[in-house]
Amino acid sequence: MKTLLVTTAACALALALGPAAQARGYEAQVVRTKYGVPHVTAKDFGGLGYGQAYAFAQDNLCLLADKIVTVNGERTRHFGPDATNVVAFTDIKNLESDLFFRANIDIETLRANFVKGSADYRELVEGYVAGFNRYLAETPREKRQADCRDAAWVRDITIDDMLRLNEERMIQASGGAWLRQTNAAAPPTAAAPAKAAALLGLPNMAEQIGLGSNGWAFGREATRNKTGLLLGNPHFPWEGTNRFYQVHLTVPGKFDVMGVTIAGAPGISIGFNKDVAWTHTVSTDRHFTLFELKLDPADPTAYLVDGQRHAMERREVTVDTPAGPRAHTYYLTLYGPVVAMPQAGLAWTATTAYALRDANKNNSASAGTWLDIARARSVGEIKAAITASLGIPWVNTIAADRKGDALYADITATPNVSAQKLKDCAPSPAAAKLADGARIYVLDGSRAACNWDAPGLMPGASMPAVVRQDYVANSNDSYWLANARAPMTPFAPIVGPTAVPQNLRTRSGIVEIEARLAGTDGLPGKGVDQDAVKTMLFWNKNHAADLFLDDVVKACGPGGTAATAGGKTLDIGQACTVLSKWDRRMDNDSVGAILWVEFWRRAQAIADLYATPFDPADPVHTPRGLKGDEATAAKLRQALAGAVDVLLTEGVPLDAPYGTIHFAVRGQDKIPVHGGEGSDGVLNAQQARWVPGVNGYVPYHGSSYIQVVTFDAKGPVADAVLSYSQSTDPASPHYADQTWLYSKKGWHRLPFHPADIAKEAGPVLKLKQARTNRQSGFPSLKGAESIRSGFADSGGRWG
User: Fold this and answer.
1) Integer Cα distance of 119 and 46 in angstroms
2) Which of the residues 174, 213, 475, 478 is marked catalytic?
């Protein structure tokens, strides 16, 4: 049956492409500019994908090959059941992820959607598969990336692999985040009633794992050159296939876009063309709901909807492990898979179970949507594209165009569930509690009327969006303060809340923007330009310190001793002195920055801390100040003692300059990394973890690709930096070059126009391949040829 399905999908694809498309070959030219950025030129989208994948494989072969293993549920086979990998931004054991992906990716539907979708995207993906496989075929093992050159799991990829990979990305903020709870669901038995998930916590939502970004767009009323200007500052992982990869894609006269894509994804995710620039930030929308099921009293694997009995579908999957085959049964309903989270009141009992419906499952519209964004000539066209497709999975869209318009849009694949339906269909007190606290919405699955309203996804025209000529901004709070001068009125709660405290990055961003527009921030003049925006981001101000450090120093008093939460007494005098002299920045030479990070991590959890509580009428400036009573002061000293304790235990001097203990590791180099915790209100956010072996705080998530784009008479003017560099291959010259650039607060003026590319261009690689064996749906390497012009034969690496 599996062979038949593959053949059927391949034949459908061949018919969709037509005889002329089948006869064409792949042809691309790749030239690299400074920092290893590939510029791919082709006559069609198949050629673009072909050249893009070849370049990506040169830089990150192991990265993509490893993820292909994940989405096919084959990690246990190659890496063992108990080692971990990252799924939905969370560490998951291999066996758990293998079971989940084997059961929960609907490859037949993904194939059908692919055939019916964007013809340009089909060509792009087919070319990408051919380009990656071409690199493998012509690159000897000894010249591949050392980390995986002899690995059995490095293989040719297929269209199915690409479809699975895209699906994994679509569900990262929905079904993927519920992987453990999906795996934990099992019908109750007399021997083990609903214990499978007893140790599981709530799934990691974006705000819990620090997933986020800053996106600012300025219009002609705010910019000095009277055109649009965009800051794109996504905070994303430094490791894995959620890393960004820089590339420039051109079909002369038809398509010309530059920026970044998520590793291994064809096309561009964040970037610019001659008329528009765009970025994304993680939205507050919930892209799923749960349904409480009323079970058949005689059978806990059957449920009732309007009194009609429905048997759950059983789906059994098996993974081979060193201890023998491991089978697992999943239970599916008309809403989606059954999930279990007993400690949150969501247990599978004899009477009740819970199912998850995912707005992004089988979201195949996303790929064509990003191609439409890349072709847009104005922010209005971007808004129209995302409204029509509803293909954007879980991010806001922020954009600016050369006419001087600025767009904010929270238009994503979101359940069409109104505030009234959430109220009318809340099935239990436990459900209401989850809605109020974690914003996890549970609907009554025993009533058909409580399912999502037709057409299922919330219409784009009913979601938050605004085009302005001054500014829009988002730092992962809701749409409410996209422009602080004109707060938006409430939309459905499932989209996001209003009149609630804002995170410190949101507040800091608005403060900086308004000060710049007023000319009160110490920079020359008023209004924004590229230099001002770059300075604002890399000022590395710690907004929490700006708001609260003076009160902390007062609470220190003369210093003396204080006890940690665990009762350990320590001298905090030096810590108080260091903080009193700190410059309140997260720069590499800042003394006191890491002490504040550890202190504030503890202090912000103190209850009833603020002198002026949150006021929805003044959300940018409240809460502010810390209470000055002795009880609060004692808690602050305790938090400071805790910070001192952890630093002394790690062997970190309290007065260590930040960059000496906060750094990226590249081979033998420890590259100082500025920026700090987003929860501290640091715009240039960097999350880091203590790594004992290197004795430092090593960033793993935060500012990644940063672009500041405006327009002149010729088109885009873009300054950018990719904090972790292009390549994951330690032997590559582009393994650390931009990390050093970022460390020094440097920027790269991206060469977009042909004359600018020519000034930086290295050797030219010309690739050409005939499309043969089309009956299988996959291109072969028969007829492939390459022409290298000055291409160094160094295992596919560019100098």
Assistant:
1) 10
2) 213
Span 52-77, pLDDT tens digits: 999 999 999 999 999 999 999 999 99
Which uninterrupted H or E stretch holds 112? helix 107-116
Contact 347, 200 (CB under 8 A): no
Tokens matching residue 51: 């050249």
Look up 213 and say whether it is catalytic: yes
Average pLDDT over residues 237-260: 96
| Per-residue pLDDT tens over the stretch 595-634 | 999 999 999 999 999 999 999 999 999 999 999 999 999 9
All residues at 6 or more sequence positions from 31 whose CB lies less than 8 Å from its CB, including other chains: 38, 39, 41, 757, 761, 762, 763, 764, 765
- Residues 540-682, CATH architecture: Orthogonal Bundle (1.10)
pTM score over 0.90: yes
The whole-angstrom separation of Cα 741 and Cα 748 is 9
**Token digits for 538?**
């890399």
* E strand map for 267-382: 270-272, 276-282, 288-296, 299-305, 308-311, 313-321, 324-332, 338-339, 352-358
Closest CA to 376 of 225, 489, 271: 271
How many whole angstroms separate alpha carbon 197 and alpha carbon 378?
A: 49
Q: What is the CATH number of domain 2-27+42-181+768-786?
A: 1.10.439.10
Does residue 656 contact residue 588 with C-beta atoms inside 8 Å? no
Using CA of residue 19, residue 22, residue 25, residue 27, what is the dihedral sign?
positive
Which two three-digit tokens encode residue 423?
């109220």
DSSP H helices in 747-787 = 754-760
Neighbours of 145 (CB within 10 A): 26
For residue range 124-167, what is the model confidence (pLDDT) as tens digits? 999 999 999 999 999 999 999 999 999 999 999 999 999 999 99
Residue 727 has pLDDT above 60, yes or no: yes
Strands 244-251, 764-769: pairing kind:
unpaired
Q: Is the distance from CB of 263 to CB of 244 less than 8 angstroms?
A: yes
User: Among positive and negative, which fits the CA dihedral 94, 96, 101, 102?
Assistant: positive
- Whether the CB-CB separation of 129 and 159 falls below 8 Å is answered with yes
Which run of H or of E encompasses 230?
strand 229-237
**Do residues 310 and 304 touch, judged by C-beta distance below 8 A?**
yes
Element (H, E) at 33: strand 26-33
Q: Is 619 exposed, middle or buried (0-12, 13-18, 19+ CB in 10 A)?
A: buried
Q: Answer whether 798's CB lies under 8 Å from 763's CB.
A: yes
Q: What span, in angstroms and rounded, lies between the C-alpha atoms of 256 and 52?
A: 14
Q: Where are the chain's structural domains?
A: 2-27+42-181+768-786, 187-204+288-358+418-450, 540-682
> Quick check: 408 and 482 in contact, CB under 8 A?
yes
Position 238, amino acid: W
User: Is there a contact between 606 and 639 (Cβ–Cβ < 8 Å)?
Assistant: yes
Tokens of 555: 């609470």
Match 């909807």 to its residue by tokens. 305
Same fold, 2-27+42-181+768-786 and 187-204+288-358+418-450: no
Task: State the sign of the Cα–Cα–Cα–Cα dihedral 634, 635, 636, 642.
Answer: positive
Q: In angstroms, how far is CA 273 from the centroid of its own chain?
A: 22
> What pLDDT, in 10s, does the model give residues 462-495?
999 999 999 999 999 999 999 999 999 999 999 9
**192-229 b/e (C-beta count within 10 Å ≥ 16 → b):** eebebbeebebbbbbbebbbbbbbbbbbbebbbbebbb
* Overall fold of domain 187-204+288-358+418-450: Penicillin G acylase, beta-roll domain (2.30.120)
